[in-house]
């Protein structure tokens, strides 16, 4: 009987801890017991909740300013009690939201280069919960839509531009985890009553609910790109488990597997472009990563990343912030509370070629919203606008065109030939025989009337296609501008050392 090895380009993904100069040290990471990420990052900043006396605070460090953090580094300190969750705006790298035990949600603006002094006054102060707020999530496609969940069993969907709530959803019990689906038309929740629910975030209508993992410890949920649900939780015997559920039928999971016997909650880091899931256990020194497929057994273990110190929590970098030239497909920042260190872990695919790898980097979610808040509120849905990852590539540029021929060869093939099509025949005495120029007969045709069709107004479908094309062009232009800025900074840095 022959053994068949599953074909996958991610079978050899491996995790590597960054060098010491890529980590953030002397960060006084919070010791709060709430099961949250306590951090968030984007291509400009990494934000971490810190220990603070007399209130809640967090730091926003420019992503390039690694190393030891100054003890007097400015903090965002507008909360009166401990900060429980952070989330950067996916469409503006300078806007961050925070939630706290003081029952409020605040939105802040962080200037380029980081803070020069402590920040106390927020841009927006959202008040609608009666108890502490443990979860905040930005909408994946609509601008200025933010979701919050509190210990009062209330989910609130906010329009932060108007500083007002769009919908308030009363839940049966304390919410442990929330996830938006790919286009932001649904949310999934797990709760203290061990139930998994799918809810319409505009109206609060409960669409589907079912029993989740049997254990009493917290469960986490994440919408996959195809609409399925991926959850982590515990069995009745306190074994850690993961499961995959059909979107329309939550009665029985498609697959349910035991992981190990550890007791820490497993945070889910999902990469929808590669369909890979990274499970980061609270109190573990391991990160387990899997690939999701459409056929049984649906979840394929790839490998484990092991460290010497356990992590408190984690956050992961959006695709547009990765090092594409080194084939980095995912990056996680581990919060190592015992050492007050934020450690960078890069997951890469080994390739010999230094060229851009199309199969590893399909088009990814960009930083331009597909919808405005009013459009989403009125019932419109749209998938995220994608960017061409090749525009962020700073490595060796392939000179071949899409057709396979080099640019030089293609220009030679397309150039107009100056030689006559038929060369003159050679005579016996070595002299060429001159041929008379060919006679071209021109036949006049009767003039036909020119009919100019009256212009027709574009249909609604054509207008929508034009809007989508315009958004894609804006994303591409913005990506090229960022690449040019990065190259100019490298060039100026090189000139400064000469």
Short summary:
With 498 residues, this protein is mainly beta.
Main β sheet profile: 4 strands, antiparallel
User: Approximately what portion of the residues adopt beta-strand conformation?
Assistant: 25-35%
Poorly predicted regions? 399-454
Average of the residue pLDDT scores: 86
Q: Which of globular, elongated, flat, extended, rod-shaped describes the shape?
A: globular
Task: Find the structural class using helix and strand composition.
Answer: mainly beta
Helical proportion? 10-25%
Strand sequence of the main sheet, in spatial order? 1-30-29-28
Span between termini: 64 Å
**Radius of gyration, Cα only, in angstroms?**
28 Å
What's the total count of β strands?
A: 32
Describe the structure.
With 498 residues, the chain is mainly beta. It contains three helices and 32 strands.
Characteristic terms for this protein:
498 residues; mainly beta; four-stranded antiparallel beta sheet; 3 helices; 32 strands; globular
SSE topology sketch:
Layout: E1 14-17, E2 24-25, E3 39-41, E4 45-50, E5 56-62, E6 67-68, E7 76-79, E8 83-88, E9 95-100, E10 104-109, E11 124-127, E12 133-138, E13 145-150, E14 154-159, E15 164-170, E16 175-180, E17 187-191, E18 195-199, E19 206-211, E20 220-223, E21 229-234, E22 240-245, E23 255-260, E24 266-271, E25 276-281, E26 286-292, E27 299-306, E28 313-316, E29 328-336, E30 341-348, E31 364-365, H1 373-377, E32 386-387, H2 407-414, H3 460-497
Parallel strand pairs: 2-6
Antiparallel strand pairs: 1-30, 3-4, 4-5, 5-7, 8-9, 9-10, 10-11, 12-13, 13-14, 14-15, 16-17, 17-18, 18-19, 20-21, 21-22, 22-23, 24-25, 25-26, 26-27, 28-29, 29-30, 31-32
């Amino acid at each position: 009987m022959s053994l068949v090895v599953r074909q996958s380009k991610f079978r050899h993904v491996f995790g590597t801890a960054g060098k010491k100069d890529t980590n953030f040290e002397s960060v006084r990471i919070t010791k709060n017991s709430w099961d949250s990420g306590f951090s968030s990052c984007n291509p400009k900043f990494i934000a971490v909740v810190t220990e603070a006396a007399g209130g809640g605070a967090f730091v926003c460090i420019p992503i390039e300013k690694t190393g030891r953090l100054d003890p007097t580094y400015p903090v965002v300190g507008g909360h009166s009690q401990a900060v429980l969750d952070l989330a950067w705006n996916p469409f503006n790298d300078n806007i961050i939201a925070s939630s706290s035990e003081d029952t409020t949600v605040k939105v802040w603006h962080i200037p380029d280069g980081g803070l020069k002094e402590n920040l106390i006054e927020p841009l927006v102060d959202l008040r609608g919960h009666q108890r502490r707020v443990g979860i905040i999530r930005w909408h994946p496609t609509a601008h200025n839509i933010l979701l919050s969940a509190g210990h009062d069993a209330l989910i609130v969907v906010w329009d932060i531009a108007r500083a007002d709530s769009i919908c308030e959803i009363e839940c049966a019990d304390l919410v442990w985890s929330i996830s938006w689906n790919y286009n932001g038309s649904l949310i999934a929740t797990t709760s203290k009553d061990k139930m998994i629910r799918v809810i319409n975030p505009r109206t609060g209508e409960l669409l589907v609910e079912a029993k989740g993992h049997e254990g009493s410890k917290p469960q986490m949920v994440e919408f996959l790109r195809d609409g399925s649900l991926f959850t982590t939780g515990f069995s009745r015997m306190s074994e850690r488990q993961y499961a995959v559920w059909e979107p329309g039928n939550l009665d029985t999971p498609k697959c349910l597997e035991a992981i190990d016997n550890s007791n820490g909650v497993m945070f889910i880091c999902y990469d929808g472009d590669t369909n890979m899931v990274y499970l980061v256990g609270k109190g573990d020194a391991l990160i387990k990563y899997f690939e999701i497929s459409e056929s049984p057994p649906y979840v394929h273990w790839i490998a484990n990343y092991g460290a010497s110190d356990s992590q408190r929590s984690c956050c992961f970098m959006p695709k547009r912030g990765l090092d594409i030239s080194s084939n980095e497909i995912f990056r996680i920042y581990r919060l190592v509370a015992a050492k007050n260190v934020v450690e960078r872990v890069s997951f890469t695919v080994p390739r010999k070629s230094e060229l851009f790898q199309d199969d590893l980097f399909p088009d990814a979610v960009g930083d331009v919203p597909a919808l405005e808040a009013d459009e989403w509120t009125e019932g419109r849905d749209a998938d995220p606008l994608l960017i061409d990852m090749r525009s962020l590539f700073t490595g060796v540029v392939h000179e071949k065109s899409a057709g396979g021929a080099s640019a030089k060869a293609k220009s030679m093939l397309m150039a107009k030939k100056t030689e006559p099509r038929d060369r003159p025949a050679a005579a016996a005495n070595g002299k060429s025989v001159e041929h008379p120029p060919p006679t071209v007969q021109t036949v006049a045709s009767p003039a036909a009337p020119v009919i100019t069709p009256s212009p027709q107004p574009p249909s609604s479908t054509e207008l929508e296609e034009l809007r989508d094309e315009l958004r894609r062009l804006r994303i591409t232009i913005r990506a090229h501008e960022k690449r040019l800025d990065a190259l100019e900074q490298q060039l100026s840095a090189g000139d400064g050392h000469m």
